[in-house]
Amino acid sequence: MADEPAEPGDEAATPDEAETVEETTDAEPAPVKQPRSHVQLALIVGTVVVVALAALAGWLGYRAYQSRQTAQLQDLLVGVGRQGALNLTTIDAAEADKDVQRILDSATDAFYDDFAKRSQPFIEVVKQAQSKSVGTVTEAGLESTSGNEGQVLVAVTVVTSNRGAPNQPPRAWRMRLTVKKTGDDEAKVSKVEFVP
Q1: pTM of this prediction?
Q2: pLDDT for the residue numbered 27
Q3: What's the confidence (pLDDT) of residue 22?
Q4: What is the Cβ-side half-sphere exposure of residue 42, based on CA atoms within 13 angstroms?
Q5: Would you state the torsion angle of the CA atoms of residues 90, 156, 79, 126, taken in this order, to the nearest 10 degrees?
Q6: Is the CATH code 2.60.60.30 the one for domain 39-195?
Q7: pLDDT at position 135
Q8: I want to staple 143 with a disulfide (CB 3.0 to 4.6 A). Which of 28, 63, 83, 151 is the partner?
Q9: How many CB atoms are closer than 10 A to CB 119?
């Protein structure tokens, strides 16, 4: 049986025929890759460089914007802290109602509530003693920030006079004011502490 010649209808092929079939499929030429031209390569490199530069410029622009926003917030907090310290240390018996209202207008939260409760007795004491105090800010700086609020440390010199002691020597005080942003370009004092 092994020696019998293969019939033309047999499905099994001789080894010579199998090689011929393989050779036929391998004989098709593979497509030849064309090397990229210098122009195409330059366009690809140029596009990558432009995209990288645009991303870098966008990132640097965003960082500059954030830096400006932070600086503006810090300036606002320090400015309101300075003014808050002046408001608290500049009070005249002749205009005590206006002076206290100015303090309340620049206050918020617990400080506003506490000062509003004590404002009438405070006005009466100032008027009764004929007290006048003038504060001058000598230094102010931002101690810390957290979100939209910060602690401002303010050094003030206060000259006080009243009916019993008209010429008192200046006094140096330090205050820590917590200033809270309450609007787009507005901030108010939410807490006041005297620092030894």
Answers
A1: 0.71
A2: 56
A3: 52
A4: 3
A5: -20
A6: no
A7: 95
A8: 151
A9: 16
Q: How far apart are CA 106 and CA 117, in angstroms?
A: 16
In whole angstroms, what is the distance from residue 107 CA to residue 102 CA?
A: 9
Contacts of 134 (CB under 8 A, 6+ apart): 89, 90, 158, 159
Tokens of 9: 């209808």
- Tokens coding 7: 């019939």
What's the CA gap between 192 and 140, in Å, rounded?
14
CA dist., res. 132 & res. 181, Å (int): 31
Q: How confident is the chain (196 residues) per 10-residue block, as mean pLDDT?
A: 54 53 56 75 93 96 94 94 96 94 95 94 93 95 93 96 87 96 92 93
Which of 78, 91, 188, 179 is closest to 135 using CA atoms? Answer: 91
> What is the rounded distance in angstroms from the CA atom of residue 109 to the CA atom of residue 95?
25
- What was the pLDDT predicted at 108? 94
How far is Cα 108 from Cα 23, in angstroms, rounded to an integer? 92
The ranges assigned to domains in the chain are 39-195
Measured in residues, the chain has a length of 196
Residue 109 tokens, joined: 């939260």
Residue 2 near residue 14 (C-beta atoms within 8 A) = no
pLDDT at residue 30, as a whole number: 64
